[in-house]
Specification:
Porin; Ig-like_fold; 8-stranded antiparallel barrel; 11% helix; Immunoglobulin-like; mainly beta; TAT_signal
Length: 546
């Protein structure tokens, strides 16, 4: 009578539980992960497998037949928790007949509440459902009529609680239900069947259970997988390789993550957290390399990243050209240097040309040599050229001046210095007096300035009736002048030559002869100084006292 409604009730409860579980899973996919829990992070789903003892206390009325306890049984239950403390539970218990007719299944569902700690969890629940219970056996030996009755489904209520112990193995997956103590109430209403008497049973009983717990999931899921990636270098020219490196966080080290890469430009390859982008042939612009890390397809267990990179336009070549030295004499050479300013940094080819029809330029690298052999004085323009495999080229020019050598300097010439006169002292016409001092000092200064120069002194004597031998007097005047320069001014005697001349004046003339200069031919006759006696110079006049 009640079997069909209660069968539908059981199916409805199971369906509602499944819908709740599915809705919760869907919510876990779309809801951002909560921060890590403070304190215990209990399981999301608990499955209990254990032994169950059923102690029946009730009778079939009006006959008064009593139900006996069943000390053998099994229980299976599953609980889904909406949060840390509350959830819904579905339970099924099976008790084979003791002194009753046969197996008694008990199916219930309802809310469950718990108080989790690090080691143990206390829980309580209240459930409603149905039980399929047969009538108790009659005592035929006592002459009691046979009131045994087949199975009948009837409503059942369960309320109770217990304590679980959490085992530390396998990330807390296992536990032990130390005990579960429930009060059960079952109502059965039997009708007459097959000649048996009917009856009504209201059975209150205690149900004690213990067994193994399996924990699945957590109320607060693990932090979601995150993925970041970076391109290095991030700014290149087409053809340059790029390495993209991804960094995944919160990946379960016990699972193998898979990596995949895509790019909106170029060719990207890689199966780990590192990939390479081939940028050959790419146009200038901004692009992204995208990576994916997947631990599983569950929400929060895969993530994506994007690494931007830029392809720069290839710059134009910038070339400077210089010559060192920039001025040479005919036949000289100059080094031509090319300097390319190019951030692209690709190899270039160098060539050189020049405007002159003579000479030559050689070199194919950053430097070349210009030879001006055979070139006439003037300006030669050298052109420096560079090109590369990208079709870029540039030119620059520099000039080299070919300058005719200056004429050789004129040969040094002898030059006349000052002259000394001997007209005042008629009694001593060969003596050097004080008035000659200024001229002699100037002569000594010139010899000091040019230490390699020599001095020619030529003595002269004017014709006079009083002078018996003019050549002798002229020689004495020249020798006395030399003696002054040697003795008073410290001039090396070997630097001074003395001569006698025919100037017809009472003088000694002087000629400064630089090194390399020719000795003038008109100096006169060389004097044999060993035949001439040196006369002392006249002392300066003393001042009279007033």
């Amino acid at each position: 009578m009640f079997s069909q409604p209660f069968r539908k009730l059981g199916r409805s409860l199971l369906a509602a539980s499944a819908v709740s579980l599915g809705a919760a899973s869907l919510g876990a996919q779309t809801t951002p992960a909560a921060p890590a829990p403070q304190g215990p992070n209990p399981s999301r789903v608990d499955v209990f497998l254990g032994y169950s003892y059923w102690s029946g206390h009730g009778s079939l009325k009006p006959q008064g037949l009593t139900y006996s306890s069943i000390d053998k049984g099994a229980i299976v239950s599953g609980a889904y928790y909406f949060n840390k403390y509350a959830g819904v539970e579905v339970s099924t218990a099976f008790h084979p007949s003791g002194k009753n007719d046969a197996l008694m299944p008990l199916v219930t569902a309802g809310p469950i509440f718990r108080l989790p700690t690090e080691s143990v969890t206390f829980f309580g629940h209240a459930m409603a459902g149905a039980a399929r219970l047969g009538g108790p056996n009659s005592d035929l030996a006592a002459g009691t009529p046979f009131y045994s009755h087949g199975y009948q489904w009837g409503p059942a209520l369960v309320a109770g609680g217990g304590m679980d112990y959490n085992l530390p193995w396998h990330d807390g997956m296992f536990g032990i239900r130390l005990f579960q103590a429930d009060y059960t109430y079952i109502h059965e209403d039997y009708g007459p069947a097959n000649g048996n008497f009917g009856g009504r049973a209201n059975v209150s009983s205690a149900q004690l259970s213990s067994g193994i717990l399996l924990h699945f999931g957590h109320i607060v899921p693990p932090p979601p997988v995150t993925y970041s990636c970076v391109a290095s270098p991030s700014s290149v020219y087409a053809g340059d390789p790029i390495t993209v490196t991804g960094t995944a966080a919160n990946v379960n080290p016990k699972k193998t993550a898979t990596y995949a890469w895509t790019s909106d430009g170029g060719k990207i390859s890689g199966t780990s957290n590192t990939a390479t982008v081939d940028t050959t042939g790419m146009n200038p612009g901004s692009y992204n390399a995208k990576g994916t890390v997947t631990e599983s397809m569950k929400a929060g267990r895969f993530a994506e990243c994007a690494a931007p990179f830029t392809i720069n336009p290839i710059p134009a070549l910038a070339l400077s050209c210089s010559a060192s030295p920039s001025s040479v004499q005919p036949g000289g050479s100059s080094t031509i240097t090319s300097v390319v300013s190019d951030s692209y940094g690709k190899p270039v080819n160098y060539t050189y040309s020049y405007s002159s029809t003579t000479g030559s330029v050689s070199g194919s690298g950053t430097t070349a040599t210009l030879s001006t052999t055979g070139a006439a004085p003037g300006t030669i323009t050298v052109t420096c050229n560079v090109s590369d495999d990208k079709g870029r080229n540039a030119s620059a020019t520099t000039t080299v001046s070919v300058i005719a050598p200056p004429p050789p300097p004129p040969a040094p010439q002898a030059s006349a210095l000052c002259s000394i006169t001997f007209d005042k002292d008629t009694r001593r016409p060969a003596r050097v007096d004080n008035e000659a001092k200024a001229c002699l000092d100037d002569i000594a200064l010139n010899l000091q300035r040019d230490s390699s120069a020599k001095l020619a002194l030529t003595g002269n004597a004017a014709p006079s009736k009083k002078v018996k031998n003019a050549d002798k007097l002229a020689a004495e005047r020249a020798v006395n002048t030399k003696a002054y320069l040697v003795g008073e001014k410290g001039v090396d005697a070997s630097r001074i030559s003395v001569y006698t001349g025919t100037a017809g004046a009472n003088t000694v003339t002087s000629e400064l002869i630089p090194a390399g200069a020719s000795t003038p031919s008109d100096l006169g006759t060389s004097v044999d100084e060993s035949t001439v006696k040196v006369q002392p110079r006249t002392a300066p006049a003393r001042k009279h006292k007033k």
